[in-house]
Design goal:
The protein is mainly β and 127 residues long. Helices cover 3% and strands 58% of the residues. Strand 6 and strand 7 form a beta hairpin. It comes from Sulfurihydrogenibium azorense (strain DSM 15241 / OCM 825 / Az-Fu1).
Length: 127
């Protein structure tokens, strides 16, 4: 699992679903959670949380194609496999690991500057 430290900037909600804006060292992120500020304490503005996402939750690109949940990084290593490839990359002071299909990974090489996108529904919040 990969993590980024964040704090809650704002919460928009209806019934039991919330869209949460979070601020991190890598920029702002948005996530969707099945809670609201009336049911859990961690959805209050200013609360510190961790963003958690799996190794297969990343979308890599050499150009910035998404407006939200995108940050820039640099590939540090690639291990090619028969079906999947493991990519380690760095963004500011964070180290991440990702798994891509071998065909996706063929488009990248060590030291490439990349943009990484994470869907709002793929982010888990940890208190």
């Amino acid at each position: 699992m990969n993590t980024i430290q964040a704090y809650v900037v704002s919460v928009e909600f209806t019934d039991t679903i919330s869209q949460v804006k979070l601020s991190t060292e890598l920029g702002d992120f948005y996530c969707i959670v099945l809670e609201n500020p009336n049911t859990v304490d961690y959805l209050k503005v200013g609360k510190s949380v961790k963003l958690i996402f799996k190794e297969n939750d990343f979308i890599f690109s050499k150009e910035k194609i998404f407006k939200i949940n995108t940050f820039e990084g640099e590939i540090k290593s690639i291990t090619f496999g028969e079906i999947f490839s493991a990519i380690n990359f760095q963004a500011k002071n964070y180290q991440f690991s990702a798994i891509l299909s071998k065909y996706e990974a063929e488009d990248f090489k060590v030291d490439d500057k990349i943009y990484i996108y994470i869907k709002p529904t793929n982010i888990i919040l940890e208190v």
